[in-house]
Write a structure and sequence with these properties.
Layout: H1 6-90
């Protein structure tokens, strides 16, 4: 170190500073990558749960639609029968 010129010492300090910054940056990048991975796992789980819930809701809605369609058919048939009876009695 004693044999270095002032300029060389200044360059060496700058290089050491850059090396430290790069090391810190690498550590921060690794921490960020780990946090992003955990967040991704968390959100993947949330999305999976939402998909299951959506599927269950779609199934329930489909069943309700079938039941309501059946009820509408029965109600129409009943109305037709009542109208037929009223016609018979009115005639």
């Amino acid at each position: 170190m004693e044999n270095l010129t002032t300029f060389e010492r200044a360059l060496l300090r700058e290089f050491e500073s850059l090396a430290t910054a790069c090391e810190r940056s690498g550590t921060l990048s690794a921490d960020t990558a780990e946090r992003l991975s955990k967040a991704s796992d968390h959100f993947s789980g949330q999305i999976g749960m939402l998909r299951k819930r959506q599927t269950a809701l779609e199934e329930t809605l489909g069943n309700l639609t079938e039941v309501l369609d059946g009820q509408v058919r029965l109600t129409r048939r009943l109305i037709e029968q009542v109208n037929a009876l009223l016609k018979e009695r009115g005639s």
